[in-house]
Specification:
The protein is built from eight helices and nine strands. By secondary structure, it is α/β, with parallel strands linked by helices.
Length: 207
């Protein structure tokens, strides 16, 4: 049985029924991966920095075993300059923190996989826009520098939203429910993102 550990934020977090219909892709990903067990450590409001400083990566490290996978999707909260406890400069601190996840995984003989931030519902003049550009680019640099596998979820999710169109895409996000939240997913959206992510993830795990 392959074991996957998820280090991420609210877009990946598992939510209780009382939070429904808000959901994160981490609570659905196991449905699309045969012979896998998922341990979802994602929690809202965390950046690559605060996740580590709160000891959450340390908790994962204690459980990691040889052959496990550590999936790291960070970036949404790293960009919040008004919250210094979260913020990281993309090409300096952010890269340094991401490398700590890779170091910890490899120290435990686990396999790290970087995942770029997932798209927000940012639609202007008939086009879905990709946010967090510097963070996506910086993560790709880390992937190359550390020879670490990477899934470009920003690109995958933007392409998917473009295919389905704005009317359907809106049902993926909590703005459909509360009229203001363009970041967090409904159960429908989280499930679709998990499905989208599972295909490239299966290829990496099977290799």
């Amino acid at each position: 049985m392959t074991r996957l550990f998820l280090a991420s934020d609210s877009t990946c977090q598992s939510y209780s029924e009382e939070n429904a219909p808000q959901a994160g892709w981490g609570q659905f990903i196991q449905d699309y991966l045969a012979n896998c067990t998922v341990f979802n450590h994602a929690i809202g409001g965390r950046s690559s920095k605060s996740f580590i400083e709160e000891g959450r990566l340390g908790e994962i490290e204690e459980s990691l075993q040889e052959g496990d996978y550590l999936l790291v999707q960070m970036g949404h909260n790293d960009s919040t300059k008004e919250k210094p406890e979260r913020y990281t400069e993309p090409y300096k601190e952010y890269k340094q923190y991401l490398k700590q996840y890779i170091i910890i995984a490899r120290k435990r003989r686990a396999i790290p996989i970087l995942i770029t931030p997932v798209a927000r519902l940012h639609y202007v003049s008939g086009e879905f826009l990709a946010d967090f550009g510097d963070y996506c680019n910086a993560m790709k640099e880390v992937g190359e520098e550390e020879q670490c596998s990477l899934i470009d979820l920003m690109n995958l999710s933007i392409n998917h939203l473009t295919e389905i169109g704005i009317k359907e895409a809106t049902t993926y996000y909590m703005v459909e429910v509360n009229g203001k939240d363009h970041t967090h997913f409904t159960e429908k959206g989280a499930n679709q993102i998990a499905k989208l992510l599972a295909e490239p993830l299966r290829a990496l795990i099977n290799n």
